[in-house]
Amino acid sequence: MTKCITTVKEMQTLTSQFKREGQSIGFVPTMGALHDGHLTMMRQSRSENDISIISVFVNPLQFGPNEDYEAYPRQIEQDTQAASSAGVDYVFAPSVDEMYPNTLGITLKVGRMAEVLEGAQRPGHFEGVVTVVNKLFNIVQPDRAYFGKKDAQQLAIVEKLVQDFNHPIEIRGIDIVREDDGLAKSSRNVYLTEQERQEAVHLSKSLTLAKEMYDKGERHSANIINAVTDYLHNHTSGEVQEVAVYSYPELEEQDVIHGQIFISLAVKFSKARLIDNIII
């Protein structure tokens, strides 16, 4: 039976006990509104650790002034049931006051990795992400933590956080979980209209086009970016906000492709901004 915990003190007491007993802890941080992508990470955690913990916390620090913090779906009872079905032992669901009882006197600055892609569109977003992840790591003390590759920039930044601050944690990047038609599963997909949901399949199709170009020998980023952008303009009504090619995990822009890269895109529909990517 999955137990829901709402205070930092109780969570820390439990995880300290598990550590003393020599039990391994797997951790999946989430903002709730759980879908199959989250459940895949939970099942992986369950299979690789003695204890599995998830957090459900909509972190205000990572939302900008015009973003959907207030509207972000909150459904803790459904989320706890979903986590239970995946074999999770504990759901850590603190309030904002519990996580941030005082104004933060010390903050984390991400630097160059947060100045591109999503970070350029959403100033301060990744500072909010690393602040909450750092706090959660200190509270939960996991041996392994699981993050989705759909947020590939976030994954790279979290890996750098662990490296730079010497967290004794293994970060596991989990492949994007998709709907049958290829759309990346996301808590924001519920905001799409019926027409937009049909169009949204073309995000993943545009990335397939990019990979086909790469496989045929195309190494100039501009040619891939232009082809993907044209495809999205022709097949969706959304605003194409970004198509980019970066090295991975260094997050350096690539004019001529070499080494491991990721091709990422962002399309803004009427009520949802969707992102997708492919790592090659």
UniProtKB/TrEMBL annotation:
Pathway recorded for this protein: Cofactor biosynthesis; (R)-pantothenate biosynthesis; (R)-pantothenate from (R)-pantoate and beta-alanine: step 1/1
Binding annotation for ATP: 31-38, 148-151, 177, 185-188
GO-annotated molecular function: ATP binding; pantoate-beta-alanine ligase activity
EC number: 6.3.2.1
Binding residues for (R)-pantoate: Q62, Q154
Protein residues bound to beta-alanine: Q62
GO cellular component: cytosol
Keywords assigned: ATP-binding, Cytoplasm, Ligase, Nucleotide-binding, Pantothenate biosynthesis
Location of the protein in the cell: Cytoplasm
Entry keyword annotation includes Kinase: no
Homology family: Belongs to the pantothenate synthetase family.
Record function comment: Catalyzes the condensation of pantoate with beta-alanine in an ATP-dependent reaction via a pantoyl-adenylate intermediate.
Binding partners and assembly: Homodimer.
Protein name: Pantothenate synthetase
Species of provenance: Staphylococcus argensis
